[in-house]
Amino acid sequence: SLPAASSLSSTLSAVVLGAGLLCAALNAQAREYSVSTVLSDAFPWGQAAEKWADLVEERSEGRMTLRVYPNSQLVNGDQTREFSAMRQGLIDMAVGSTINWSPQVPELNLFSLPFLMPDTEAVDAITGGEAGDMVFEAIESRGVIPLAWGENGFRELSNSRQPITSPEDLDGLKIRVVGSPLFQDTFTALGANPTQMSWADAKPALTTGAVDGQENPLSVFDVARIDQVGQKYLTLWHYMNDPLIFAVNRQVWEQLPEEDREILRQAALDAGQWEIEMSREQKDERLAAIKERGVEVSELSAEQRQAFVEATRSVHEQWTPQIGEELVEAARRAVDKR
Ligand code: X2X
């Protein structure tokens, strides 16, 4: 029986060795990660995520695969739960809007302060400077690793009723808003009647007339064909801009080898910059396409814009304590010095 035992043990060690090799082989093989987005690759937002995935696939030589799940499908359409799901590890990664994450990261309400950022230079001065670093620290302190910025864009106001060039024109209009309760305050301050709902519910609500209006970047208005659901009037008021943030669940990040972290981060930076430039370049043609479809576009004079600024000043006072005095100050300094 001795020879049998020894042959059993050598069989066992062969099995163990085989399993070890198999594990090593599996580790060297592709690992797949989920990436959540609200908008698909018909939009710059979804294209940013696909670009990230392509760069990571290529630069990791297939070791890391990012699979993009658009339309908030990983959170059953509830985009305001995306950050929590990523923090809990139900989602590995996301390219998400500051608006949708602000319920969990109050500092992100910074970008939704009405008329804080008059132009793209102001956006870049904030995201690329001290204020941007503070925002990333706030995200990290809540269990998610932020890697890079992208951009959904300046949000413009549309409605089905009439041209809007003053706060009075908004009186009593039902406006669909999303994410943060800050938007309730902004539209209430303007005399409108805001209703919070997800993107998935927005188009049906516009179609039935349950709401009169909405606000979104030109790219979203254009690609989603918001003109087809009765939104005949568009006001270019640029009242806020929601940056996108590329981010990773903390455990996923910590388990990655240093080399793969670098690949992931650099690919996010490159994809973000690519998307920001592309979507800004497309702005004029999008506006032309929207006008061509018969949408009446109102631009605001400096004086008209100022009336909106004044009507929403209370929102700054109300929200600065929750965002953080220091952060709001850093952002204001960045805008002033741009
Ligand atoms: O829901 C919206 O309005 C959208 C698509 O712009 C965001 O996710 C913030």
Output the CATH topology.
D-Maltodextrin-Binding Protein, domain 2
Describe the sheet with the most strands. 10 strands, mixed
The CATH architecture classification is 3-Layer(aba) Sandwich
| Fraction of residues in helix | 40-55%
Number of strands: 10
Mean pLDDT: 94
CATH class: Alpha Beta
Order of helices and strands: HEHEHEHHHEEHEHEHEEHHHEHHH
CATH superfamily: Bacterial extracellular solute-binding protein, family 7
Low-confidence stretches: none
Shape: globular
The CA-CA distance between the termini, in Å, is 85 Å
Please state the structural category. Answer: alpha/beta
Q: Gyration radius, to the nearest Å? A: 24 Å
Describe the secondary structure blueprint for this structure:
Layout (H helix, E strand, L loop, with lengths): L1 H27 L2 E6 L7 H16 L4 E6 L12 H7 L4 E5 H4 L18 H8 L2 H11 L3 E16 L14 E4 L4 H8 L3 E4 L2 H10 L4 E5 H6 L9 E4 L4 E9 H6 L2 H24 L1 H10 L3 E4 L2 H10 L1 H11 L1 H13 L1
Parallel strand pairs: 1-2, 1-3, 5-6, 5-7, 8-10
Antiparallel strand pairs: 3-9, 4-7, 4-8, 4-9
(2S)-2-hydroxy-2-methyl-3-oxobutanoic acid binds next to helix 4.
